[in-house]
Amino acid sequence: MIKISPPTAEESQQLGISAKAIRNSLHPSLYFFGSLKESDTPFITSSTAQRFLVEEMGSLSLPCILVLLYDMIRMFIIGANTDLLIFVVGTIVSLVAAFVVSIYLIKSLQRSEKLGFTNFQHLWFISIVITLASFIPYLFGLYLILFKGFYLLAIDFSLLKLLESLIFILLGHWIVKKTRMIQEFHSSIHEQLGLIQA
Description:
By secondary structure, the chain is mainly alpha-helical.
């Protein structure tokens, strides 16, 4: 393992690591089609993590809010049914899970900075719960793509259903993509903390 010495506050200001630099280093195509060199991965401080996660949470919450508004309108028009309740509960639980993961990541980095990046230890079961929680929005996005997008279109085809299915496929893809970025960020922070401890 390679030891990484954390930059001082002045060095991190000079480095100017932005949320865009983090996003580019976590791009899913790099994850699937090749690994980054360790020099390409920026050192992530808690303030940088906070900026990045605020942007990602804002971008993740927009499609969730659109799905929630659609659900509320449908509930008002046709009344509550099981499908709409899955939407409402799935949207709210997805947003809460992504928020909890973001708070955990920021607090992990703040705690490790406070301890000087040397004595950081976390409870393994909390890490497992956070990892599982990060899959909730991912599964909800897949539900939107597969069930509301493709399956319902295959059952009943019409132009209106086609438009509705395309909207759900796009919203589901947006949720899956942003959740994947948060999951990659989660693993890179734990890798960074592991490299620092070595």
